[in-house]
Amino acid sequence: MKLIEPKFSYKIESKRIYLRPILITEINDKYINWLNNHEVNRFLETKEATKNSIIKYINDLRKLNLDLFAIFENKTKKHIGNFSITSLKKNSACYGLMIGDREARLKGLGGDASLCIIKLLFENLSINSIEVSAYNENEDACLNLMALNFKIIKKDKIATKFKLDYLDWKKGKIHNSIIGKGIKIIK
User: Fold this and answer.
1) Which residues constitute the domain of residue 114?
2) 85 occurs within a structural domain
3) CATH number of domain containing 159
4) 3-class secondary structure for 8-40?
5) First-to-last C-alpha distance (Å) of the chain
6) What is the pTM for the complete model shown?
């Protein structure tokens, strides 16, 4: 199965990570093992994967003008996870995040990746709001979203839905911080 060309040509850089559209070279045994590992996939919709199922997922996103970005650590150039833009409408977007590499977890790199995508969506793609859902059991993700100024808009027994509006982002502490201002988007 062939991977469709990326719909986005952006490379997004922060001090510790960079993101770019995923290439066929990243769809390897390491990535497949992440998606088949219960420790990684317990908060994902995907519970098992093959190379072909991953390529199909990415192609389906790209057919809808969406994409999956690979996340790399700047120091090591190591692929540590992925970030998907799963919905992009006239004024709103949704995204999903996975840090698959065990050594990269709990270092704040998922928060850095979120900042990068938020900046891309708001400042380059003219989105007015972003919605993200997280399993309630995934406390780190929920705390990360609240730290990024997302507001809870719906909560049930299983998951919480968060929303961040552009105006809340612009007046937020993180956007105006050294970290927020240090993100570069290269087209």
Assistant:
1) 11-181
2) yes
3) 3.40.630.30
4) CCCEEECCCEEEEECCHHHCCHHHHHHHHCHHH
5) 28
6) 0.90
Specify the number of domains making up the chain: 1
Both tokens of 155, joined, read: 């909560």
The pLDDT tens digits for 18-66 are 999 999 999 999 999 998 887 777 777 776 789 999 999 999 999 998 9
Contact criterion met (CB below 8 Å) for 128 and 118: no
Nearest CA to 102 among 173, 5, 159, 30?
Answer: 30
Is residue 24 assigned to a domain?
yes
1 located within any domain: no
In a domain, 6, yes or no: no
For β-strands 151-155 and 17-21, DSSP reports them as unpaired
Encoded tokens for 70: 């690979």
- Interval 91-149: pLDDT, tens: 899 998 989 998 998 888 988 999 999 999 998 888 999 999 999 998 888 988 898 88
Percent of the chain topping pLDDT 70: 94
For 102, which DSSP code?
Answer: G
